[in-house]
What we know:
The structure is a single chain. By secondary structure, this protein is mainly beta. It has one helix and ten strands. It has one helix at residues 6-9, and strands at residues 18-25, 28-35, 44-45, 49-57, 60-64, 67-71, 76-79, 85-89, 94-102, 108-109. It has a five-stranded antiparallel beta sheet, with no helix packed on it. The protein has a three-stranded antiparallel beta sheet with strand order 6-5-8, with no helix packed on it. The chain has a two-stranded antiparallel ribbon with strand order 3-10. The radius of gyration is 13 Å and the shape is globular. The chain starts with 5 loop residues before the first helix and ends with a strand.
Amino acid sequence: MMAFDLKAEQEFSLERHIEKILGTESGGDFTVACWEPGQTSPNHCHPHATEAYFCMEGGGHMNVNGEKVNIQPGMCIVHPPGEIHEYVNGEKRSLLFRVRYGDSVESRHFEKT
């Protein structure tokens, strides 16, 4: 069993969002991701892993396949392997919990078109 206190593990930076891996198990990892207002992830995918985000506080939106999906506390979004996505944080600090599983959690970054 693993148990995480996300509030105790949160860490914020004005320079970039912080992703802190809290544990690993069976080819996956568990991460707390902390975002300041307006911070954006790279446009990326995980070719060999499924990635799930759980919004604990704050929120923003996810850009996926030309669609903008609003994210708010209590929501979960799941990206299958290879799905290109980008997270854009909203006006408040956000605390997300991320789970990734697959043969490799490596990511590939893409330029926006």
